[in-house]
Amino acid sequence: MRQLDDETVLAVGRLTLAATELEYLLAWVGADQAGGDPTAVFTKAGEPLRAARGSVQFAAADHRDEFIGLVEAAGAYLLQGQVAVRAMWFDNGRVDAATFDDISGLLLRCRDRLQTLLSESQHAPAS
């Protein structure tokens, strides 16, 4: 792993927080997969996305397609973040603050839309 400048380290931190916030909302979406307990879903690595994928199939018809699309986008963005972080360990990996901030923006926009959709369907977590 190469030496990272402070700006890049901060951007990785922003990416980590954005990914975690998105996973928290995915845990709420997938909570019915754990008896209605989002904490049980959130505390297991990889479980928020898996559980959300299982739950959105049963969303109300008027929101189902958007829920499915958002959950699949979330999965792609979370994977993109993981790939970018892992690239820091390779000499040819592109590692800079802008890369991490771009991915963070995708994660946060997905989180925001998912939060709105959850609110509309009245299954949103407490703020």
Q: What is the fold's blueprint, element by element?
A:
Blueprint: H1 6-29, H2 38-42, H3 47-56, H4 61-86, H5 97-120
Helix pairs in contact: 1-3, 1-4, 1-5, 3-4, 4-5
Task: Give your account of this protein's structure.
This protein is mainly α and 127 residues long. It has one domain. Helix content is 70%, strand content 0%. It is built from five helices and no strands. It has helices at 6-29, 38-42, 47-56, 61-86, 97-120. Helix 1 (6-29) packs parallel to helix 3 and helix 1 (6-29) runs antiparallel to helix 4. The protein starts with 5 loop residues before the first helix and ends in a 7-residue tail after the last helix.
Structural category is mainly alpha
**Count of beta strands:** 0
- Give the CA-CA distance, first to last residue: 38 Å
Number of self-contained structural domains: 1
State the major sheet.
Answer: none
Kindly state the percentage of residues in helix. over 70%
The oligomeric state of the chains shown is: single chain
Quote the beta fraction: under 5%
Element-by-element helix/strand order: HHHHH
Give structural attributes:
single chain; 127 residues; mainly alpha; 5 helices
Summarize the structure.
The chain has 127 residues and is mostly helical. It is built from five helices and no strands.
